[in-house]
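Data deposition worksheet. Section B asks for the primary sequence of the deposited chain exactly as it was used as input, without tags or linkers unless they were present during the calculation. Section C holds the resulting structure in token form. Section D is free text for depositor observations; keep each observation to a single sentence. Incomplete worksheets are returned to the depositor.
Section A, Depositor: J.P.
Section B:
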Amino acid sequence: MIPGTGSWIRKWAEIRPNRTAWIFGEKSYSYLEANRRINQVASVLLEDGVVRGDRVAVLLYNGNEFLEVFFACAKIGTIFVPINFRLAPPEAAFILSDCGARILFYDPELSTVVAAMKAAVPGLHTIEVGHADAVRSVSQDQVGSSRISYGVSSYEALIASAPTDEPQAEVTLEDYQLIMYTSGTTGRPKGAVISHGNTYFNSVNGHLAYPILSTDVTYVVAPLFHMGALNIFTTPTIHAGGTVLLGRSFDPGVALETIERHRVTTMFGPPTMFQMMMEAPNWPQADLSSLRFLFAGGAPCPLNLIEAYNERGIALAQGFGLTETSPFVTLLPMEDAIRKLGSVGLPVFHSEVCVASDDGRHLEAGERGELLTRGPHIFQCYWNNPEATDAAFIDGWFRTGDIGYRDEEGYYYLVDRKKDMIISGGENIYPAELERVIEEHPAVLEVAVIGVPEKKWGEVPLAVVVRRSEADIDAEGIVEFLRPRLASYKLPRSVIFSHALPRSASGKVLKPVLREQFGGLFQGTSSDGELAAHPSLTNSQGPEGAI
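Section C:
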């Protein structure tokens, strides 16, 4: 019987106790020290009466405490619930209520959010991470037994005197490990339940596809509450006995300096992150010779980005995955990045993938349909939501919600999200296809295409474009660039220029936000002939935003 993922730290503490597990700020933690601190956190949780299956939530920036709580929960069989620190208090409170969290670890900078959440989640125990001088207090619960009250408690003060003994708990791959909530952009967020087995097989899939080594130093600056940051490199690197370098926030210039200083070998991020690094002033002179490869996920990787890194001798790995798939589903061999440009690659070792029609019929190469997948990396269920769980599967296959196809060599391609597809005059238009073509324009930094209602055609495409600095291009110029490259019915009805696109913490463009802003643009209007840029919006600067 294979033990749960909490055993990984203990095993490395026994085999290579002095090897560095993770680094945060100026402090390095060996596997031995990390294991002791994790055991102390587990002791604190057990002292509070937390039992197997209870939920423990965190509202934390990247830091050693995030991983300590994560692995402490894994050791004692409690379920870890990371919360997006960018959520508004009502959104975060919903997650806490939905999962029934017993305890919340939080960053002191987020104390205002936590105060607002506690009003909506009575009885929640909280531990503030970052103030070692806070006082440990004890209160009485309803039945009169003594228990720790975490309203004013300090993380460091609590674990300082806690036992370092290894918890006596039997946790296996079948046990639930974490609940990671989806973005909720189309309604209430759903909590995807990930088991220890899901994390284990995801790690194995990563090792088999892109060997992750015990000598690797992975730079984790994307937020760990996101599946990509947690499970693309962080957990597989720990599984391999490597080192995780934790960054609290992303700055492209600082990232380049950090890679050089710590001899970073791997890093995950959305393509936008690597684009910003490439455009940083210190890019030309940065020493990136330590990098083995980078992993770009969350959005298609444009050719100019792949080429720019290839010129520096750095390969960009790419793939496809979701929160519900832990996340690896397919991975593109790095040597095929240009030959198979636009492909998300081949299924990972412990995964099956197919393209299917709406009724579940498997389609042939070249035919477009929904990508389905199955294997030991697939999540267990949506927490407290059996209806959503049932709807997510067909004949044992998980429905990804992504439209795509495979070529004759078995490589998979994504066309678009099923819900993002535009139906204009009876024709299917895939925004991702338009985006890829628009991004070929040298003046375009990034673009998002959405469908907006229109009286005659039902829906028409609208492109929100971010220009490169100093670029001189207008809406008509974009459309003229597209005319020889796209069918006329695919041309955007309008082009709007913006300073930035609204993005989630994982770097994905928040198209529901764009639909809310521009969805009523053509309501009640009609257009004849070829689609073109809307004259009144040609010079629009669009909304301000931040990546």
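Section D:
Confidence is low (pLDDT under 50) at residues 131-152, 524-547.
The longest strand covers residues 444-454.
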